[in-house]
Amino acid sequence: MRYAIYFTPPQNDPLTRAAAAWLGRDPFGAAAAQPRMTGGLSAEEVAFHTAAPRRYGFHATLKSPFTLAEGETEQSLLTALDQFASTTAPVVLPRVTLSRLDGFFAITPFEHSAALDRLAGDIVSGFDIYRAPMTERDIERQNPDRLAPEELKNLYLWGYPYVFGSFRFHMTLTGRVAGAQANRVEHAINAHFGPLLDEPLEVDALTLFVEPEPGAPFMVRSSHMLGAMAQLENA
Measured between alpha carbons, how far is 176 from 227 in angstroms, rounded to an integer? Predict the structure, then answer.
C-alpha cells in the first residue's frame, strides 16, 4: 500500500465535479460517468488522452506516493496530518489557468505563489520521516535517465524529482499530447471546464490518497482542513 499527500478541492466543488466527469473517475468513491464526447473530441479520444491521470484522480502533488516507513502506521500519519494542517494557513490562488507542461495539460496558478511553494516544501520535508526508503522499482518509475542533476538529487533525497526549486503546482488533466493533437485537446478542455479555468482556487486542505495495491486506482482516504486551529483562536 502506498500513500500520497495531495491537494484536491472538496468532492462537491464545481471544479472537482468537472474534473471527475473529464477524467471519468471520482477518487472520493462516487460513481462517475465514462469520458464523453466534448469540444470536438470523441468519447474514445477523451478516454485515451485522460488514461494516465485517471488512475491518480484529480489532484496536485504535495508529497508524492510513498510506502510507510518501518514503525509508522496509517494512524500516526493521520495524526501528523491533523496536527500540521491545523496550524498551517490556507493559500489562495487569485486565478488559475490551463497550461501545457512537458506535453501534458494541467491547471496551474496564473501567477507564481511563494506561499504555495513554502507550503509544498514544508510538506515534503516535514513528512519525510513517514516515507520508507525507495526501492529500485520506485526509482525506475521516475525515469532517472531523463532527469536533470538537481531533479535526480531530489529523487534520492526526497523520493520525488519535482520538489523545492523544481516544484510546480499543477493539477493534471491529460497524458502527453502529441503536437498535432494539442490544439484539439486544448479546445476540448476549455469547452468542458469553461470559466472554471480562470477562477480563484483556495488550497485549503491536505488530502490523503491511498493506492491499496500496486497499479490500483488512488482513492481519497481523508481530508485535513488547513488553519483549523487559527480559526478557533480567532473565533
Answer: 36
**Residue 35 amino acid letter:** P
CATH classification at residue 103: 3.90.1140.10
Quote the pTM value.
Answer: 0.92
pLDDT profile of the chain (235 residues), mean per 10: 96 94 89 75 93 95 96 97 96 95 95 96 97 91 91 94 95 94 95 92 97 93 84 41
Strand 91-93 versus strand 96-101 pairing type: unpaired
Nearest residue to 214 via CA among 6, 76, 55: 55
CA distance 160 to 27: 22
- 118 lies in which domain range? 2-234
C-alpha cell at 130: 513517514
How far apart are the C-alpha atoms of 51 and 93, rounded to whole Å?
28
Report the number of distinct structural domains present in the chain: 1
Q: Is the CB of residue 37 less than 8 Å from the CB of residue 91?
A: no
Query: What's phi and psi for 147, nearest 5 deg?
Result: -85, 145
Bridge partners for 134 per DSSP? none
Residue 31 in grid coordinates: 460513481
- Residue 129 corresponds to which amino acid? I
| Residue type (1 letter), 115 | A
Alpha helices in the chain (DSSP H): 14-23, 43-49, 51-54, 74-86, 114-126, 136-141, 149-158, 179-193, 228-234
Kindly report the number of other CB atoms within 10 A of residue 213's CB atom.
7
